[in-house]
Amino acid sequence: MTASLIFLYGPPGSGKSTVGRILAENLKIPFHDLDVEIENASGCSVVQIFAEQGESGFRALEHQVIEPLFSLGTGVIALGGGSLTNPAVRALVEAKGSIVCLHAVPEVLLLRLQPDQEKRPLLAGKAAQRLADLLAQRGEHYASFPVQLDTTQLDPTQAAWEIQILLGRFHIKNSNPPYEICIQPGGLGTLGQELSGRGLHGPFAIVADSNTAPLYARRVAASLDQAEFLHSLMVIPAGETSKTLTSAQKLWENFLDAGLERDSTVIALGGGVVGDLAGFAASTYMRGIQWVDVPTTLLAMVDSSLGGKTGVDIPRGKNLVGAFHPPSFVLVDPELLATLPEVEFRSGLAEVVKHGIIADPGLLKLCSAFKSPHDQALPARGDPSDWDVQDLLRLVSRAMAVKVGIIEADPYEKGERAALNLGHTIGHAMEQVSGFSIRHGEAVAIGMVVEARLAEHLGLAETGLSRQIATLLADLGLPAEIPGNLDPKTIQTAIRVDKKKKQGIVRFALPTRIGSVRIGVDVPDDVLVSEI
What we know:
46% helix, alpha/beta
């Protein structure tokens, strides 16, 4: 597998050990405290080692003890506050995984250190002055690490979650089966290694569409060849019109021809259509085999690749036939967005905005880096290939984090998860009525504005929320009004067959303000008609 060790570093009191334990539990990987490992290996406490061998002797022990931990492959390791002051050790650690440097203001560090100052030899005596001296001595060193997290105002649980967002690492544990999500720039080239390291088996079926196969299939095949896996490529026509039972049947037949068995694996290489269709085919082939999602669009990365919802469309509605069948692994490579047409990228931004409206207003600030270049008053960003991969990673990871948090709390859409339907009830109806000529993200964008108007009409939101959302979407190059060529009555009819209705009533998820959504809202027909 690619390097997946996570090292927590920083000054004493920054939270390395406490946060590290929570982080490891969240990701279901081992945790190791380097100081504890040193004490176990030497049979002496850290205080004793400093007293008898000095700091140089302690650093030599650190070097000896840390090297065997590199062979773990995965895990969280809390380093000592000076472990990486040795350039040689730092180089070794940087080659083996990701380093997150934690920090906090001195007053908070000192407060956290008070209970066990006697266990920290470098702070013995006048702790406040010694800490100030230590920070002055190492300040430039700590600041040199690119991934930083200020824990001053974060409790350990919050800090662990922020690290997951920074690194793009999530584990969906309330799913059957649990699965890992990894955001890894360049990860497509190591996919075979990742699958092998997770015990997934071939033969593999690579399901791509006529857009993604020419771009990425050869790289995936080469990666699988390197891992010595048998594999076959299956290509469907691009577009929502391929998401049918007929297409699923063709995949089932292709799976048989390729020799897929009960322990084989399907790889979905594409956007939401490919993921939904390939996942559904995997859920029903031989009563269910494993599948891996490798989303290639922004929309799929932040939305459809998460949660295990698979399905196909039928003439009377979108996603009316499907199953909950979680993937075994989701690999997100933000570098793939470089080949995505700008109009598709902006379509995906609608789902990012949706997640910001639901639970994370800060996401909307990140979106401002991707404002539409078509307005001369706005900074031109040009083609997605010009955008910084780190900007994309932050955007994707934080948007994914909103959905991950929600599906963890409600994996099978029994309650809270319904918030994710914001914009979709009206959006899906418009897609259906337009014959899918409207992109999903564009339909969701319009749906959010209309649903905000419904919330205002019902007194659930203050007047002006729909205008605020519409302005935000317009800045991102997204539509905010129902196209004039779509018949309102036909849209209303399509809404009434939405798959999310209960006891014959379609219930909406409506925004009440930026960062808050009310679920299960019954919108009277006269209100619906007045706003569509």
